[in-house]
Amino acid sequence: MAVLEVRNLHVAVDGKRILKGVSLTVKSGEIVALMGPNGSGKSTLFQTIAGNPRYQVVEGDVLLDGASLKDAAPEERFAKGLFVGFQSPVAIPEVRFAFLIQAMLNKRSGKKLGDANPKIAEAFKIAGELGLKQDVFNRGVGAGFSGGEFKRAEVLLALLAKPSIAILDEPDSGLDIDGMAAISKALLRLAEGGAGILLSTHYARILKFLEPSKVYVMYDGRLVLEGGPEIVKKVEEAGYERLFKEAGIA
Amino acid sequence: MEKELADVRGMIIESERASELLGAAKPVPYAVELKGRITRDMIEEISKLKGEPDWMRRLRLRMLELFEKLPMPKWVRGVGEIDLETLVHYAKPQTQTARSWDELPKEIREYYEKLGLPEMEAKALLGLATQFDSEIVYFNFKRKLEEKGVVMLPMEEAVKKYPDLVKQYFMRVFPAEHKFAALHGALWSGGTFIYVPPGVRIEQPLETFFLIGGSMESQMEHSIVVADKGAQVHWIEGCSAPRLLKYSFHNGMVEGYAHEGADLKITTVQNWSRDIINFNNKRAVAEARAHVQWVEGSIGSKTTYTFPSTILKGEGASTEIYGITAANGGLWKENGAKVWHLAPDTKSRIVNKSISANGGTSVYRGMVYVAKGAKYARSHVQCDALVLDGDSANITIPHDQVFEETAVVTHEATASRISEEKLMYLRARGLTEDEAKASVVLGFVSDIVKDLPFEYAVVLQRVLELEFSKLGRVG
Ligand SMILES: Nc1ncnc2c1ncn2[C@@H]1O[C@H](COP(=O)(O)OP(=O)(O)O)[C@@H](O)[C@H]1O
Ligand SMILES: [Mg+2]
Question: How far is the CA of A230 from the centre of ligand 2 (A)?
């Protein structure tokens, strides 16, 4: 049983305070959704959890199974079972996507980077299910990937890494309805397999598939609403602006 | 290419820097050392010691005259610090050319063992010659090739045994057109001569390995590789040196000749220590429908000037010139290419990949010449630079001279870096910072490396990995 805990997290980027006291919990097998308007700090939270050195923890902490991740490098967090998917494509044209998969799987199973890894065959199969074309394997990571391809690729990596906690930053944006369905199915499978899932999204649609047990809404670096699926409905009907007004937040 | 990364660890000894693989130089016994002013007497002495035929002695003397006349090239940096008069220009180690590794003096054998050459020979090669300073000290060549009429010999032996053959090529492909080429012609020593008869195709490579074992020396080996009509051969040259007290100067020459329909490949894995000022003179001719491929892996040395060049002489001849340049630390590395399109339907493709870090400068200096009448000649030049920090640079100096209207000459250049964002992404996928950097660097050159024989791809990757995974902060 894995637990990711974010405790009263304050984060600054380039000296600017972005997160102003965020607390949340994600447990094995659970799906937690994070909503909120652009610029509210969702990606900042995820990058901080991933251990991105640009994001400076000013106060608070992130804990995995009760242990602080404060001093853990990004690769150590990955090794502990954390997978954080990125929102926007990072282009690394030099590194072939197939190599990244092989390297990641090897690191996950404690082998050396370049060792042969038979699980690459599994990657092809899952890619098919996600609607990801085979030719991306021979391309550089993120290089010339469409928005949709990158999202599918991130979910593919999450599935292959078999993390105890998977965090996905807007896995649905840029996807058509079929893509969204494929990704939802994959994430449900991941949760059924025991992974805790934290995802951000702008759309109620994916959450209809996923039925998260908890929904948070972030605004200006704080979690301003917290509840169940009824929140998704409110966001969808009223929009953030009215919702915040009604709640006396903004 | 991915698998090899791990295997190679056993092959090359762990070290902080690829160029420090051999540690500090150890004293080696010499039979002869000629030092000081480059005079007619010195040239005569070398020629006599080698027991050369008169035509070669005269060739040397002609070259000496040219050397004295020709001006110092202005574009050469770092060569100014060389005081030719203080160098040992002929250093013959105290050994005969050995046919087995245990015949070699221990000090010399240990270097080759550290480099994994005996294993390489057993696994991948049909012929191997190794040069220590001025002479070939080890030579072995598969009998089955001899039976097919293939010749591979230390150059000195070839000069005596096959004078008519050698004369056709020796400094004919690369005449003494500048001061260093002339100097080379006067002082050359060592190198190999390879001749592959018509129609003979050699599937595995032949290699010559060059080692400079002492400080304040010059090494000026001369190698010729000839593929006669329809023949195929792949020759590999490796270069390495221990850490030297001061510096040494390398000024070698490679002349290649691909006769009609022949296929000639020349691959260099240059991993000199940081004390070598490395100058090269490399040129090949391709007759009709022949193909010449150069791969120049320029990893080590302090300063390098290397411009593999092809003269596309016959109709339908083609060439590929691939370069990988690593300029890590305050180094100046020039790795360019030259092609002369002299006949119709000739094709050239130049791909140059450079990596600069920690104040290193990599330079691509290239020239594509298309003569009038070389109808429908096509050339494409691609230069990709990976610059790892703000102190480092890449300079790309392409130069076209096109005198044929139907010719198409194109250029493409890219520049990239290992940004914090790239590193973060790879680290979030479990790679350490070092692994992330090595993956980017190796991936960057993988297009070129994947065409090399497996064992060499492994070595080149390992050397690059060593060179670039221990970088400081990049960004
Ligand atoms: N790397 C960064 N550098 C500077 N500002 C940033 C950076 N990342 C995020 N920000 C700022 O932090 C705020 C929150 O952004 P972000 O976390 O991307 O929000 P969201 O993901 O909810 O859209 C925004 O004002 C954004 O401009
Ligand atoms: Mg975001």
Answer: 23
Ramachandran class of B84: left when φ > 0, alpha when ψ lies in -120 to 50, beta otherwise: alpha
**Which chain A residues contact residue B441 at CB under 8 A?**
94
In tens, the pLDDT along B339-396 reads 999 999 999 999 999 999 989 999 999 999 999 999 999 999 999 999 988 899 999 9
Residue B392 inside a domain? The answer is no
Contact A115 B3 (CB under 8 A): yes
- Domain with residue A132: its CATH number is 3.40.50.300
Residue B450 lies in a domain: no
* Crossing angle for the helix pair B106-114 and B117-124, to the nearest 10 degrees: 60
* pTM, two decimal places: 0.87
Domain count, chain B: 1
B333 occurs within a structural domain: no
Q: Return the SS3 of B256.
A: strand
For A141-166, the pLDDT digits (tens) are: 998 898 899 999 999 999 999 999 99
What domain count does chain A have?
Answer: 1
Domain membership of residue A201 as a residue range: 3-246
Q: Is the ipTM of this complex over 0.90?
A: yes
Q: Do A94 and B443 touch (CB under 8 A)?
A: yes
Measured in degrees and rounded to the nearest 5, phi and psi for residue B307 equal -135, 80
Q: What is the domain extent for residue B216?
A: 2-306
Pairing label, strands B30-35, A82-84: unpaired
Atom of ligand 1 nearest to the CA of A218: 22
